[in-house]
Structure formats: C-alpha cells, structure tokens
Amino acid sequence: MAAEDVERALLVLFRSGVPMQASDMARTMAFAQGWLGIEEADRVVAHLIDTGWLSSAEGGYLPSRDLSEVKIPLSWMPRPSRLLEATPPGEPAAKAVAPVAAPAETKAAPPTPASKNDESDDPRVRLEARLVGFIARASGLDRSEVKRRAERKQHALRPCTSWLGLALVAHDQGLDMDAIVDALSPNAQA
C-alpha cells in the first residue's frame, strides 16, 4: 500500500517528465496539491531521496522507477504516513508491531477559510473566488451559502481541498462539470 501511494504521488509530481528540484517537489505537495504541510513535505522529499524512490537527473530529481502502468483513482490523496514510512522500491514493507503516534509538530492543521483569504497574493485565491461566483450564479445560491456548503464538505471529507469541496457543491446543484472548468478560464468573469 505504501508503495502504491508513493508511485501515485510521484506520477502526479512528474506528469511532465521534467526533473524537479527537491524544494519544488515539496512546494507542489504542500501548496499545489494540498497533501501536506511544507515542513512535512520537505521530510517526505528527503525520505524519498534517501530510500531510492528519486534519483538525480539533470540538476534535479526524477522517479527511479517506471510509472507508466500506475493508475490513480478519482479523488485519491496520499496518506502522509505512507510517504514518510516508505521502504525502498521493491522492498517489502515492514510489519508494524504497534502504532506509533506522530509528534504533534508533524501534524499539519487544515487551513481555515480565513487563512486562505488572507493570502490574497496567491493567484489560486482569485480563481477560487471566481469558481464560487460561477457556482452561485449558475445554481441561484448566495455566494456565502456556496462557501458554507463547500466548507461543510471539506470538514466532512477531511482531508479534502477547497477545490474538491466546491466541485462537490457544484455537482450537488446539478451543474455541468465542464462548465466549472470553463469558469476557471482566463476569459471568465468573476
């Protein structure tokens, strides 16, 4: 199971096939994907390098295995513990004797809606506001109601990104998901 999570995570990170710096991988895991906190993502990247999942290539890193046969289920997210405890590729995972609680500092608290809105220089915040506006107009719901419903879905489905919460609200309202994607295009009105 841990190997599957690592393979899927690496497939997401290296879709382009271009080598990545360790810091870029950590930022992608933490900010673009929302899988981990930045410190935890740094530890995961270091662990994947140490265990041989990543190998040096052209000033960065690439996966050390062929990932062409790896499939990612819809709405999949890696378990941080599986990434942090991954054994080297091809090596069977060790059986755990007893569960060990992670130190409190490694548990990343999910971002609160207020903290996301405070990061107004992040372009994703502007796109999220555009998506909320689109869902509100298309469904007839008030913007605050769209946000409230998305936050409830995030809370109920933890871990769940705000994007998935908003997509689920749109789906619940019977909106065409292609229209949701179109709402995020540069020419769409907020």
Written overview of the protein:
By secondary structure, this protein is mostly helical. The protein has nine helices and two strands, in the order H-H-H-E-E-H-H-H-H-H-H. A two-stranded antiparallel ribbon has the order 1-2. It is elongated.
Question: What keyword list fits this structure?
Answer:
mainly alpha, 51% helix
Q: Would you spell out the secondary-structure blueprint of this structure?
A:
Layout: H1 2-13, H2 22-32, H3 38-50, E1 54-57, E2 60-63, H4 80-84, H5 113-118, H6 123-139, H7 143-156, H8 162-172, H9 177-183
Antiparallel strand pairs: 1-2
Helix pairs in contact: 2-3, 6-7, 6-8, 7-8
Class by SSE composition: mainly alpha
Task: Please report the distance between the alpha carbons of the first and last residues.
Answer: 41 Å
Average pLDDT taken over every residue: 78
Poorly predicted tracts of residues: 95-120
Order of helices and strands: HHHEEHHHHHH
The beta-strand count equals 2
What is the subunit organization of this protein?
A: single chain
The helix content, as a percent range, equals 40-55%
Strand order of the largest sheet: 1-2
Rg (CA only): 19 Å
- Number of helices in the DSSP assignment: 9
The percent range for strand residues is under 5%
Basic shape: elongated
Major β-sheet profile: 2 strands, antiparallel
